[in-house]
Write a structure and sequence with these properties.
Strand content: over 45%
Largest sheet: 16 strands, antiparallel, barrel
Shape: globular
CATH topology: Porin
Distance between the termini: 30 Å
CATH superfamily: Porin
CATH architecture: Beta Barrel
Radius of gyration: 20 Å
């Protein structure tokens, strides 16, 4: 189905451009990252990562559109991956005031902080091929995501089925979120992951706590405690403290969530919007591996430009 939607978009492109209905948006980032492992047998890593995401959207009606994204990512320094350029997202999207349905190759996330699953940073590969439905009714919000994960995410180059669902309940400013994810045949000992989180604003700040439990017999519980603080409209300071044992969240070649597996510690971020279309972010991670107590210090400086 995903490849059929890609062909429909490509064959329709000349007519869409002629009718001046193609909407183009782009995002480019340049990130410097330094990883210090504080261990004699592990070499430190320093590299620069360059990423470009170019998205075309073609409206078919007031509620329906086709979309396609070209992604590029390359490295210099101690390259941690090979360069990639590919059409990585494409499909059909239907949207009204309260419901969004996306079918095709896409990104998605499960969990309040994306710790259970988050492939939004992947470029060129690592997408979900399937359907994603988001709906909000009154004080309840629902999310259903199902399909197959790209084989590039796994060492054996085999795709996996994916089924995730979430239910959020709003009570005033407080949000309760229940999450569930199933990915069979992972290299860890777990196929099923369940999360619960509670979050609420507090003045200029917003706090979050999240617990995750997996079906693995050991190392199966993770927790995250976080706070965002907004000194001004242009600035955000974010602190996340957590512990994520190896089997508590999904893992392929690396973590499938927004944070690494097998670590405990904290991450501090500062984001400054220079203009509405660009921003500068600085992030520092101070963690240890749960097995072996190996200290890891990671510093990231990232510039983002929208166009």
């Amino acid at each position: 189905m995903s490849y059929l939607l890609l062909l429909i978009f490509l064959f329709s492109l000349p007519n869409i451009v002629q009718a001046q209905q193609l909407i183009m948006e782009g995002k480019t980032t340049v990130k410097y990252e330094s990883r210090q492992y504080k261990h004699p047998n592990l070499a430190d890593v320093d590299f620069v990562e360059r990423t470009i995401r170019l998205t075309g959207t073609a409206p078919l009606s007031a509620q329906t559109s086709l979309f396609l994204r070209l992604g590029h990512q390359s490295y210099s320094g101690d390259a941690v991956d090979s360069a990639k350029t590919a059409i990585d997202q494409y499909g059909l999207r239907w949207k009204n005031a309260r419901t969004t349905v996306t079918i095709g190759s896409q990104e998605t996330y499960i969990g309040a902080s994306g710790a259970i699953f988050d492939n939004s940073l992947n470029v060129g590969e690592g997408m979900l091929h399937g359907i994603d439905i988001r709906d909000k009714r009154g004080r309840n919000a629902y999310h259903l995501s199902s399909g197959r994960l790209d084989s590039a995410l796994f060492d054996d180059n085999q795709s996996r089925s994916f089924f995730g669902m979430e239910w959020a309940r709003y009570s005033g400013n407080i949000r309760l979120l229940f999450s569930y994810l199933r990915i069979p045949n992972l290299p860890t000992q777990a196929d099923d992951f369940t999360g619960f989180s509670i979050s609420s604003p507090m003045g200029k700040a917003e706090w979050l706590t999240e617990m995750i439990h997996s079906s693995a017999p050991t190392e199966n519980q993770a927790f995250l405690l976080g706070m965002k603080y907004y000194p001004t409209k242009q600035q955000t300071i974010k602190l996340i403290i957590g512990k994520l044992p190896d089997n508590s969240v999904p893992k392929g070649k690396s973590s499938l969530g927004g944070y690494d597996n097998g670590i405990r510690g904290f991450q501090l971020s500062a984001i400054h919007a220079l203009t509405p279309s660009n921003r500068l972010a600085v992030k520092y991670s101070h963690v240890k591996t749960i097995t072996g107590n190996i200290p890891i210090r990671k510093t990231e400086i990232e510039y983002t430009q929208l166009f």
